[in-house]
Amino acid sequence: xxxxxxxxxxxxxxxxxxxxxxxxxxxxxxxxxxxxxxxxxxxxxxxxxxxxxxxxxxxxxxxxxxxxxxxxxxxxxxxxxxxxxxxxxxxxxxxxxxxxxxxxxxxxxxxxxxxxxxxxxxxxxxxxxxxxxxxxxxxxxxxxxxxxxxxxxxxxxxxxxxxxxxxxxxxxxxxxxxxxxxxxxxxxxxxxxxxxxxxxxxxxxxxxxxxxxxxxxxxxxxxxxxxxxxxxxxxxxxxxxxxxxxxxxxxxxxxxxxxxxxxxxxxxxxxxxxxxxxxxxxxxxxxxxxxxxxxxxxxxxxxxxxxxxxxxxxxxxxxxxxxxxxxxxxxxxxxxxxxxxxxxxxxxxxxxxxxxxxxx
Length: 360
Known about the structure:
Elements: H1 2-23, E1 28-32, H2 35-43, H3 46-49, E2 54-58, H4 69-79, E3 84-88, H5 102-107, E4 111-114, H6 118-127, E5 132-139, H7 144-157, E6 162-168, H8 171-181, E7 188-191, H9 193-199, H10 206-211, E8 214-217, H11 222-238, E9 243-245, H12 257-266, E10 267-274, E11 278-287, H13 296-299, H14 315-319, H15 351-358
Parallel strand pairs: 1-2, 1-7, 3-4, 3-5, 5-6, 7-8, 8-9
Antiparallel strand pairs: 10-11
């Protein structure tokens, strides 16, 4: 049965590829906005299957990659405080800050523990009441509900030693920021499936209305991405940009109402720093006043040295779609997964890591 399903997928994929080639009559630039999409595109050789006129660019869709050095430096400084336990997703350990990394801080004696969920961090707080447990809260709209739920649970249980360094970011505002920068001319955006499962498709509607850029929400399988490309090319060729969903098994136009309520209960919208882009208004989340007791920024005082970027690293430009990893002189020669210079080589969803693992 598995063989038959795979055969059907191959046959369907060939049909979609043929449709894209038939539809395509002029050059178009499409940006995939999710690191998961970038990995799937590279792993499955999707760029090579498309007409030469259809160009795919990678955007700032990796939450680890877009975390600014100032925020990494802050996390490292928190790790140096007495009686503090830092909890973090594994991808963050090796991300270089201005002068160090969480991995180096742990080697120097800081108590830094890898967790797989916010609930794991909450359990560490329960088990260590004499310590202050700080969770490094990176992610997009997908991660925000789980962090909000953990905070509400901590408040209900009266857990007073649990904190979050909130580095959460919102995708539609940074899409607007990229379009306003105008560094690259985009014809279409492959919108992130997991983010859209939370926020729905409606938050992207300003993109075709104000910028004339086509949008399709995509899943992560090769067929999902090929179908999304076909839908985008059709919109562009017809001259009718709009927002469509090619991932209907996971995304509804209105999103996940319960998840959005959780986010809104604990957080409010704020500006956020994005690597390679800078401060973007309304693109982040911060704690509401009634939950400030869980806010690591307001509950701890740390000093960090002057922020600096790694010389020669093009991670910021890669996140904006201006460059690709192979444009960087450090790629493969100096910057590798074992010795990363920038976060795009660290994260499993980083463009540099995908290019390194799967080739060009």
